C-alpha cells in the first residue's frame, strides 16, 4: 500500500483528570469520572485492544504497529488523581498509560492564572516512582511550567524542554521517550528543540495527519472527555484521527518571540 492510501493508525487517546464525582472537577471540563473511565477500559479489553506505551512502540517497531490491535492512552499534566483513580484501575485491568508531567511546579498554576481554575495538586515523586515501578505507567515530558511554547525565547525553550528532561531523567533514573506540547501548540522551531533534546516521539492535539509515521514529532491525539459510549467507540476507531485531519486540517500556531 502506498503511503498516501493509509487512512488508519493506532488510536492515541488523550485524558487529563479523573474524578469520583463530577462536583470534584474543575470549570475547565478536562475530566472524566472514574465510572466512565472504568467502562472505557472494559470496552477496550472486550474489543481486544492492547495498551502500549511509546517505549513499547519503539520496541515493536513502527513498521509492525498495525499487526496487533494496539492503543495508546495518554494523560496530560500529571494530576494527583492519576495516582488515586487512574493507577488502581490500570492495575485492576493490567493496562498501561503514558503520563506527561509538568515537573517544575506542584499544582495547576497555569490554569489558575488563565481561567481562575480551582487548585489541583500534581503528583509527587513518591507517587511517580511507585507508578513507574509497576511497569504500567511510562512518564514523558510536558515542560517545567506549562507555557505556550511558541511565545518563548530560545533560551526559555531550552529551559522548559531540555532542562526539564534532564531533571526528570535524573529523578526517574531512565530516559524519557516522548514529549507532549502544552496546549498542543507547535511550530517548526519548537519541534526542532524537542528533537534536539533527544525525545523519540512528540504528541500534539489538533495538528499532525493522524498517521504516526508522517511526522513522529507531531502525533495527533483524540481528546476523550465527557463523551458518551457511541462517541467513545467513534473516537477509538483507527480511522478517526486521520478523518479529523482530512476534515479540519492542522491548526496553525506562530512563533511570537
Ligand atoms: Zn497540559
Describe this structure in words.
The chain has 257 residues and is an alpha/beta fold. It has a single domain, classed as Glycoside hydrolase/deacetylase (TIM Barrel, Alpha-Beta Barrel), CATH 3.20.20.370. The chain has 9 helices and 10 strands. The strands form 3 sheets. Strands 1, 4, 5, 6, 7 and 10 form a 6-stranded parallel beta sheet that branches. Strands 2-3 form a two-stranded parallel sheet. Strand 4, helix 2 and strand 5 (70-77) form a beta-alpha-beta unit. Helix 6 (154-172) packs parallel to helix 7. The radius of gyration is 17 Å and the shape is globular. The N and C termini lie far apart (42 Å). The model has no long low-confidence stretch (mean pLDDT 95). The chain binds zinc ion. Residues 76-77, 142, 146, 182 line the site of zinc ion.
Provide a quick synopsis of the model:
GO terms for molecular function: hydrolase activity. The chain has 257 residues and is α/β, with parallel strands linked by helices.
Amino acid at each position: 500500500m502506498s503511503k498516501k492510501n493509509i487512512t488508519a493508525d493506532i488510536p492515541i487517546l488523550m485524558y487529563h483528570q479523573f474524578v469520583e464525582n463530577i462536583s470534584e472537577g474543575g470549570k475547565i471540563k478536562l475530566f472524566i469520572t472514574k465510572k466512565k473511565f472504568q467502562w472505557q477500559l472494559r470496552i477496550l479489553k472486550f474489543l481486544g485492544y492492547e495498551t502500549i506505551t511509546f517505549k513499547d512502540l519503539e520496541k515493536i517497531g513502527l513498521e509492525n504497529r498495525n499487526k496487533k490491535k494496539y492503543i495508546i492512552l495518554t494523560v496530560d499534566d500529571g494530576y494527583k488523581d492519576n495516582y488515586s483513580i487512574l493507577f488502581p484501575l490500570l492495575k485492576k485491568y493490567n493496562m498501561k498509560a503514558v503520563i506527561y508531567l509538568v515537573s517544575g511546579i506542584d499544582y495547576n498554576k497555569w490554569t489558575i492564572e488563565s481561567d481562575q481554575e480551582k487548585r489541583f495538586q500534581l503528583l509527587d515523586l513518591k507517587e511517580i516512582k511507585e507508578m513507574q515501578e509497576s511497569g504500567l505507567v511510562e512518564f514523558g515530558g510536558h515542560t517545567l511550567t506549562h507555557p505556550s511554547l511558541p511565545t518563548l525565547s530560545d533560551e526559555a525553550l531550552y529551559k522548559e524542554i531540555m532542562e526539564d528532561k534532564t531533571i526528570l531523567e535524573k529523578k526517574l533514573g531512565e530516559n524519557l521517550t516522548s514529549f507532549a506540547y502544552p496546549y498542543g501548540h507547535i511550530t517548526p522551531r519548537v519541534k526542532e528543540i524537542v528533537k534536539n533534546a533527544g525525545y523519540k516521539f512528540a504528541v500534539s492535539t489538533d495538528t499532525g495527519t493522524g498517521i504516526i509515521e508522517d511526522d513522529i514529532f507531531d502525533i495527533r491525539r483524540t481528546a476523550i472527555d465527557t463523551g458518551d459510549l457511541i462517541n467513545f467507540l467513534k473516537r477509538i476507531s483507527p480511522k478517526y484521527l486521520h478523518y479529523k485531519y482530512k476534515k479540519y486540517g492542522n491548526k496553525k500556531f506562530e512563533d511570537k518571540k
